[in-house]
Amino acid sequence: MPRDKDGERADISLSKDWLIALGLSLGGLVSLSLSRFAYALLLPGMRHDLHWTYAIAAGMNTANAAGYIVGAIGAGWSAKLLGPRRAFTLSLVVGGLCILFTGLTTDYFALSLWRSLGGVANAITFIVGASLASSINGTGNPARSSFLVSIYFGGVGAGIVLSGVAIHLTQSALGSDAWQASWIVLGTIAVACSWPAGLAAARVDQVGTKPVASISAREFIKMIPIFLAYLLFGAGSMSYMTFAIALVQRQGMAAWIVTLFWILLGTASVLAVNAWGRFLNRSKGGLGLAAASFLTFLGSVPFLLFPGVWAAFVFAVLFGGSLIAGPTAITILVRKLLRQQAWTAAIAGLTIAFSLGQVAGPLASGLITDYTGSLSAGLWLSSIMLILATVICFLQKSNLRL
Predict the structure, then answer these.
(1) Is 83 left (phi over 0), alpha (psi -120 to 50) or beta?
(2) Cα radius of gyration (the chain)
(3) How far apart are CA 185 and CA 239, in angstroms?
(4) Where are the alpha helices (DSSP H) in 203-324?
(5) pLDDT tens digits for 59-109?
């Protein structure tokens, strides 16, 4: 294309930005949906086959979350050592293999090992992928950048739908207890996703030109409210993502309704992406995460108070439509408040906070459930944490850039 067409060439390149974001979104699809969220669908079969209590089941989630913490701590280092694009692609492959290997054993220690290692890889994928998505249009129109970030997180919702369909088809063919085969199918899909995701990462140029920097102590102190709120959001939301399917099944719903519930949850997440992107671009301070936390709480109330199909579907729409708004909100907030070089470190720090909540929330809910015999009792604690997250978000300042 001639040089006097530079403006046209830029427009053509810009029109392809969403394809890059879409390719990167496979990282979120694998690192959260296929690895983390699909555990809720497979947990009932694993508990029945392996004779687990709810606390033991939550312990497996803790192993995965502990790996997430390690991966979040090492995400910035990995990006510096390998480069963001290579770190994203390599961790995606490793995470996919860990999902696959989860289906090859019934030993609790081995399962914990694969879930832990998978957590390490998945955290790197998710954090570096978010940083890459933030940098596709890093110096361009803020509204378009927010839209591209929301596309990246939309992959998580698509992954929820995909995992629901894949597990349903696998268990329809092999039986409701075919949890091992289901993990193998999910792992195969995850490994296959690494190729197009890697191609998309290779098209992001701006990150590679800027060194990865740490978040300063001053910046961290001013972001303490959002760190605390995101920890509570992780604790509350991940408890529901761990035990929601178990609660639906306890209410005696048919298998096809359970699958429809899960697909509806993921579909709501995908459909809400564009609306959340516009809202979060205009929101200031912690308002975005506050809205996500409150709507997530709102979806949980009828689910706990009025057992039944319609309450479950209301939960799926409100909870699913708000769940991914949390990580989208903090990514857009980081982009607004901090230097581009600090984005990876800040997202990593916030992911550590989320992961700490992911450890504590489901474990506490599991212990309360085992003690009371009521899964709803354990999940009420999660709803309380979502309300606390909502309140704390309003303490976050909207002007931070130093």
Answers:
(1) left
(2) 20
(3) 25
(4) 217-222, 224-250, 255-271, 273-282, 287-305, 309-323
(5) 787 788 889 889 988 888 888 888 889 999 999 999 999 999 999 999 999
> Structure tokens of 320?
């699913």
> What is residue 106's DSSP assignment?
-
Helices (H) and strands (E) in the chain, counts: 17, 0
**For residues 233 and 326, is the Cβ–Cβ distance under 8 A?**
yes
Polymer length of the chain: 402
pTM over 0.85: no
Span between the terminal Cα atoms of the chain, in Å:
40
Question: Any idea which residue has 């001053």 for tokens?
Answer: 218
Taking the C-alpha atoms of residue 318 and residue 189, their distance in angstroms, rounded to an integer, is 28
356, amino acid identity:
L
Instruction: Give the separation between CA 24 and CA 199, rounded to whole angstroms.
Output: 9
d(C-alpha 276, C-alpha 272), whole Å: 6
HSE-CB for 65 with a 13 A CA cutoff: 26
CATH code 3.40.50.2300 for 20-393: no
Q: Are 124 and 75 in contact (CB under 8 A)?
A: yes
Nearest to 97 by CA among 197, 201, 190: 190
